[in-house]
Structures
1.
Amino acid sequence: MYQEMEDPIDVVVLFQGNKMKPARFRWKNRVYKISEVTGDWKTDVGAYRIRHFAVVDASSNFFQLSYDERKTSWMISKIWVE
Amino acid sequence: MAPFTPIIAHVDMDAFFAAVEIRNNPRLKGKPVMVGGGIGPRGVVSTCSYEARKYGVRSGMSVSKAHRLCPQGIFISTGLSGYVYASACLHNIFEKYSPIVEPCSVDEAFLDITGTERLKGGPVELVMAMKDEIWERMHLSCSVGIAPSKYLAKMASGLNKPNGLTVMDQDKFREVFYPKPVDSLWGVGESTKKSLAARGIYTVGQLAETNPAFLKKIFGVNGYGLSAMSRGIDDSPVHRYPEMPHDKSMSHETTHSEDIQDPSEIKGTILWLSDKVARRMRKSGYIGKTVSVKIRAADFTTITRSETLERMTNRCDVIFQHALRLVPKEFGMKVKVRLLGVRMSHLHKIGRGIEDEDDFTVVGGGQGQLEMIEDTVGAHVDRLTWAVDSIRDKYGEHSIRLAGTLRS
């Protein structure tokens, strides 16, 4: 099941062409290397935009990361727990 | 197909919401996944994976029933923004294969590929190339029907799901659908099926052989449409999005997590729904003339009430006042309420087709047009609504809300 949260995280991002791609992130003092971005989409909040990334690490753990363009900040918004 | 015969493709994404969720989270692959508007027992399954369908779960089924059929199923709350974004990406792919694309929902579209099929050698080759591109770029599969009309293309796309491709002409339509029950036709629901059954008409073939004039007596002008559908006849063109006919209505409804019996809560819900409908109308540039409410009691008795206004509007306060009056007094007093909905219909696009400007009250109609609002209170509400719209435009829909919609 999914567990929702709004935990701030630090993220290393690659800019490839005109796309941004999270590469690794630090959450609760642990660093996760992203092996695949499985989905990405955007939501408009008024005049601002939040970018969402569905990602998995090498162990196929799922995380949903969100980047708030207005606050220029990242957070982890959802994880999958068996 | 003969030269100059239209070639229409209908693209239907396979279990779209569930497929997006499974693509995003590979841990869900191979599992019965159900996506719904609310994962509580009152929620409804919007779509489900093919693994869930093996247990009898279907779109539109209540979550509680789906849970009974498939207790090991994984229920996921709808992430609409992700699906809408995926839909926009799909639309961009469609436009590479046809300049005439008509979206008919978030996960379906008609493409007029007359002429463009030559880009890849033929209609099947063109559609195969499009399916491949959708898979490569989005990791989503779709089923496509190719036919000389929209109706036949739509009927064809549903034949070989998932990941199907079906070419259909009139002969194949007769061969495949004539033995099937009438509700296998797109647009024929339970009540039409019952009406036809009462007259001894059970199959598409029987319906096709029925005199259209007889069907008109039963269903009014829709009888002719029903007859044409049963024979696979449809000459409606594929509309580009900007040329599509105007929306006929706009509505919002909500199912409460528990039945409500508090008149103030009903009032607050009607206000919230009116605000959502009015805001959507203003954003899309519509005004409307008929207000309707839908009320479903705890025992599933459902009623709708409508009122046509003297002046067209897109103002929340006007819609709310009329909608609230339409709710029968016993609801919330004696009768518990499960669902409430507000609808505006007889819509007009602002600036098109309105001859007498005194006939409407509109927010955001442009400088000078607001002078038509004669009463001071109306002008005050209009300025307030404009201010609220501006705040929502900048900070989002949830940044400000009407006090009457807050629960104590």
2.
Amino acid sequence: MTYLQAIADGMRQEMRHDERVLVMGEDIGVFGGAFKVTDGFLDEFGADRVMDTPLAESGIIGTAIGAAVVGLRPIAEMQFADFISCGFDQLVNVAGKMYYRQGLPVNVTVRLPSGGGFSGGPFHSQNPEAWFMHAPGLKVVAPSTAEDAKGLLIGAVRDRNPVLFLEHKHLYRRVKADVPDGRYVTPFTARVARAGTDLTVIAYGAMVHTALEATEDLDGASVEVLDLRSLVPLDEEAILASVRKTSKVLVVDEANQTCAAGAQVAALIADRAFEDLDGPVRRVATPDVPIPFSPPLEQAVLPSVDRVKEAARELLEY
Amino acid sequence: MATSTAEWAQDPSAVSEHLTLDDRVALLRYMLLMRGIEERAMNLYRQGKVPGSFYDGYGQEAVSVGATFAMSAQDRLCVLHRDLGAHLIRGVTPGRILGQYMGREGGVTGGRDGNVHFGDHRLGCVGMVSMLPDMMLVATGMAMAFKLRHEARCAITWFGDGSTSRGDFHEAMNWAGVQRLPLIFVLENNQYAYSTPLDHQFAVDPVERAQAYGFPGLSVDGNDVEAMFEATRQARERALAGDGPTLIEAITMRMHGHAAHDDMKYVPKEQVEEWRKKDPIDRQEARLRDLGVDTAAVRAEVRDAIEAGTQEALQMPMPDPATATDRIFYEGDEDVVLGDGHAPWSGFARATGGV
Amino acid sequence: MSSSNTETAVVDVVMPQMGVSVSEGTIVEWRKRPGDWVAYEEPICDISTDKIDTEVPSPATGRLTEVVVDVGATVEVGTVLARIATDARPGEPHASEGGEPPTSEAAAATGDTPAPATPDPAPEPAAARPADAPQRRRYSPVVMRIAAEHGIDLSRIQGTGRGGRVRKQDVLAYLENGGAAPAPAEAPLHIESPYRPEPTPPRAAPAPAAPPAPRAEPEPAPTPAPQPAVAATGRGEPLSRVRRSIGERMKRSLELAAHCTTIVECDMSAVEARRALIGTTALPIVARCVVDALREYPALNAWLEGDTFTRHEQVHLGIAVSLDEDGLIVPVVRDAQDLSDEGLARRIRDLARRARERELAPDDVRGGTFTITNPGQYGALAATPIINQPQVAILDLEAVVKRPVVVTDAAGNDAIAIRPMAMLCMSWDHRAIDGAYAARFLAALRRRIEGV
């Protein structure tokens, strides 16, 4: 099944088995969702559990919080990850801090269709995860495979803390694989997408695929690709173990370069793996610009297979 | 200041139908407890024992006491910073509250948040955030869950006149109206948002805008604790009947500054004097004395309770710095949800099934 | 050689002759600049010649007053490169500080005699230049850590990284090859071999990934803009002098000689055992075998110059040493026939070290009668080396690789065994000998190697 279908399957399975789970968002019921992720859900689960909300991101997040603290397990969808900025306050200040301050956990899952590559323009292409990595009390996961999409979604729903689930739009139908049946949880850890010995490329989401493609046939080098999968908590042990093995690291972000997740990864490596390094920790990221609309502009800023390949090659030769 | 006429009558005879004498004494006791604790806390603050800032609801006690008295054990509350009475009625003890102000380990949040930014979730209260009126949406969500599960209970949330200018007010009112949720919005109109008077805050009083969202808005004398009780009780009935939300505007006056550091010079002295005459505790006390109640005994009892609470709080240690980074994520296996609080109103005890 | 002008106490620094046939040299780097103090025999500049790169020691103590020949310039032997004022005193102002460069008149006026020829520890900032570090080496954290953990002297390791830096894999390879012993890394890559890794030219960009199928949302899924083919990156740079020189030699050899290459595969078990015993690489053991085999087949230990074929009694064995970007050099073990394999090991080690530290004398690289090259550490299996003129043969010892081989016991039963095998590839000049001779020599060599 596709990555998109896997997400739908995860939600469907949880909703069938746990009546506390509901999905809420704009146009997700009758319309089946802007990307058709919840297509068919309304018929199966009814309007109470597949809620078409008003156009109010702050409201969606805030009410999800309220529902969660009285025992429901809401999955709140932002139609595009970009719109999370309208719900930033509720997410960061109410959900993120509630358990720390008041001992009251907030079991909400916020689904965020993120990423660019199809002329979505500045407001439909963002990768906002770094904002929320920076806010204490929020977990952030970002699957790159269909199997992980389902497992991480189920994991997010069951996790009693607020979890942001970054589903990359460009992977929705591009990624297809066999996905295990039933309900399973993918742990919030990293995954070695390809093992290698000469260089590690660290990425998540769509960039995992870019990294794999860029390094599968690179001058015979053996390149390891580490799929972070979980940004908060960040799998520090996996990162450090990979660096210990290869001693050279390239970190790839589709998000804007400054203070992206990759910056944190690079800082971690510089801090804790200095003695294992045989070269500088390099990064490839989108420059600090809004994602432009026209294809040549957009393709110029998003990290391409070639850019990653070139950076990898340089580092291999260092 | 715009008002709208109450649907419900506010004459005392209508009110007393639902309140026994004990209830009415209880209302006074809770208001006295609230004021007494806040005065004690203010003193502690001036003695340097209370870090950060200190907020109180002096002169507004009826708003939280009266409204909370109408809430059942299963109802859920989003309590704001001038609503200490709500916490007291639900069952938070004076000692824990004073410990909370002083940042002690035994305070309600264990030093994690300050002053009135607390809520004992075991008693059904959600601790507020400083971004106002964020909690309106949380309450909306709680009410939404009650409706989805067809439960006979409601949620209540307090917010101030100033906070109605922010987007979350609109989103919550709209959402509650669209979904016809069992929700009580209590707008504490205490005339000032910090130094901003009403005429700088809105062109149309929010209570009049409630109907634009599809439900009634009601102005109530916020300094009459029994009127507050009755208005809330009726709003709760509406909610449980499936008739949706109500906006209760409690008209009152903030008698102290925004916080202890604010001397409220921007408030005309005449305004303060005028409102002093309408002090909610004085009024309730007068009512009870008329009914032969020994209010001095009530006061003495409250004083003792506060004294004991103070001693208890002063014994509490400060939190261990090593725990500062604990408890970011819940790692346990239980589904922690808001619990039931105390509901001292006799009406709940009297009820046979139903509410 | 220097000249001095006694009247003005100025000593010239001239281009030396590094070997009989050398007629010119190129300045590679000035270690001192005008105004610097320089001590007698302190390296004053680096030069490059056809034969060798080396430092030029100062002929006198004094202050460098003038640099006449700039970096990169090639001049004839004997050309004045710079001048030193020998009657200057340390502590006098640098020329750039506004003071007059001290002249002999000024010095004479103060009545001082020229400073004695002792290295002056005092005030000149540039005087304390270490004389023995031609390149500053930096090591990455992981390289340092591994070296510390295993007690490795990193200066012994040839780096294969950018700019010749020692990379993690270099240290690990060093360790794997038993480098804990004082022996330096194996005789490294022989550039004549076609197996020297060339930088891979960047490929043209592949077609971008297909866009997703169109969906029902407002944004259509467009085809991403086609990527232009990536041009070869890199800037053209002229070849270094040494590279040009090597290239010319190689080409000339190919043009002169009728090159053939014969290959024999040897079971290296005995060599491996001997190696472990005496603590060396395979090279010196094989070299000893080569020396013995050459005694049996002396036509291979010879020079062919024009029509003149000269067999040599002694075996002066050339061992190819790679200097990475600085190319290749073949120092010679003279009278190798007098050395045991251990003796050869010691001599080879010493020559290789001096080669890498640019300390070879011109005579160290002349007079070889047979050459061995051993790039095996990189794992290549076979090669077709180019003969080192005017010799008539060159032997390439390639990688030792464990293979399944057929072994026959005394009763004639065959079995499969795992043996360390290596190819010995000898290129030889068909003008001097024939294939049968070459093959017989190799067979004899193999017998010796397998019977070590």
